[in-house]
Each structure stands twice: as C-alpha cells, then as structure tokens.
Request: fold
Amino acid sequence: MNTLINYNAQEIKEQVSPVDFLSRLGYYPAYKSGKELFYLSMLREESTPSFCVDDKLGVWYDWGGANSSGIKGGNVIDLALAYWYPLGFKDVLEKINEVCNIEPGIMQTVSREHIRPRKATKIPNYKILEIKELGNNPAITTYLQTRGIWPVAHQHLKEVYYYIEDEKKLRKHFFSAGWKNENGGWEVSNPYFKGCLGPKGLTIISGDSDRVALFEGMTDYLSWKFEQQDDGETVILLNGVTFIEAAIKRTANFNNRTIFFDNDEAGEDASRTFQKAYPLTQNGASSYTGFKDYNQRLVSELDNLYRLPVASNDNRFKAGIRR
Reply:
C-alpha cells in the first residue's frame, strides 16, 4: 500500500510548541492559570478566553465549543489543521514550515514496510552581527534603487548583517535589506532570498485610527508610498499571506480598509478572505492590473521613464559579506 508521508511532521511536533506557533501568527495569551495559558479562540468568535494551551505538554484544547473543522484539541499540527481548515495535511505542513522557518520536509510516496526513521533536521542557527543605516553597502543600495523604492526606504529599512551556521558549525555570512515585525523578528530581503530571522509576525506602522492599508510586504508598501506620498493611514504588512487571519482580527476597529495584495493565486485568495470578513473593503489591486504586484508595476513604469537597469543580480549577495 502506497502512502504519502511527510517526514517533517514528527520534526514539527518535536520542535514547534503551540505557544510559539500562535505567537508567530500574532496571537498571545490573555492570562495564565497554573501551568495553562488561556487565549481568545482564534478558531471562532468569543469574548471570554476559553482556548487553553499546556505548553509543557505541547497540547491545546478549545473549551468554548465547536469550530468549522470539528477539531477541538491536540498537538500543534492538529491546531494548524483547525486554523487553516479546510486545507489538507500536506498543505498545512507547508504553511507551518513557512511560518516557523522550518526547512520543508520531503514529500515522498513510499510503501509502509520501507519506512525508516530519519534523523530530525535542526533549524539552522543564525546570529545577527550588525544593524546599520542604509547607505553603507553599495549592493543593498543598488538593489533598492532597482526596485524603485530608494527615495522612501530610509525611514523603514535597515542593512542587516548576519550569518547562518549549519550542523557542522560552518558559517555563511550574508547581508540584506531588512525591517522588524511586531514580534521582534527581522524580515530580510535581497535579490536571492526573502525570509525572517527570528519569530514571524505582522509589521504595524501607526497612523490614522480610522483608516488602514494592508500590503503583503514592505516593498509593495514603499512602492505605494513613493507614488502616493502616504496620507496618514495606519499600515499593516502581512509579511506573508498566511497571516491574513491575524490581519483580519487586527483591523476590526477600522472603518476604512484598503488592501493591496498580489495578483496571483495566493494574493487573490487572501483578498477574498479579507473581503468576506469586511465586504466594504476597497481592493487596490486594480491599480496594478496586468502586473503581479505594486512594485512590479512601479519598476516597469520607472524603467520606461528613466531606463533603469533590471533588478540587481549583484553576486555579492550570493558570496556573502565583503568587508
């Protein structure tokens, strides 16, 4: 009998706690009682916290009633299946990998009798060495210039220098443009890599308490800011469409909402989910019809005006830091 096996499932259960998983999605406990943490349920609407997590045991239970998935408790994978219902097991594991920065597991079709234990892959160790203001690294400067956002980047972006250490203690050094999310992680981006150092989370840029604009990431926000000169809205960066549910909860008190998600399958699905929650939401994606995202359209227009070079493929990003 052939069965689809994801060897990463056991690693996830061993390495990711429900509390860590929830914090990366933007959810935090309302209070602690003994060894248990209580949350307002993220699986349904409620006003009294009844979603309970025992972090020591790595299990959870929702005392407040049924949710759409029918799953009322279990381990972190059960929680993810309930949270992203009705996605299937494979898709949910991939989403956990993305949110928690776990190396994706290998999906294979194998016979049960040939399954062998596999040593768990550790999450790569990283260390941030230095944070600098923009303008010190020519490669980062060129990258932001080719994206058309250099004139408005200084307020929100930094130069992030870091290394990643593998299981053999070998270190590779890198640098990227970066910005912080609300959980203290650094979202980093260069021509070859987009990811997060530390916990994932939303990035909130405070502004008008009545109006909010939402973007998938910093590059699209800065593209919008470059064109619109920003008129004071609160801005929320999802830093990944898996945070759409957290963004929905965080925008409950705004009356005027505008979304600028990508014109691809994931972005359009996020738009539908958000507009289902708030039907009067304005969808700004129409302003870059024919392009994947806001930045792609901006780069195309600037290229036509000023003959900008194509996006930088500076090999210094691949090679690591040159000092």
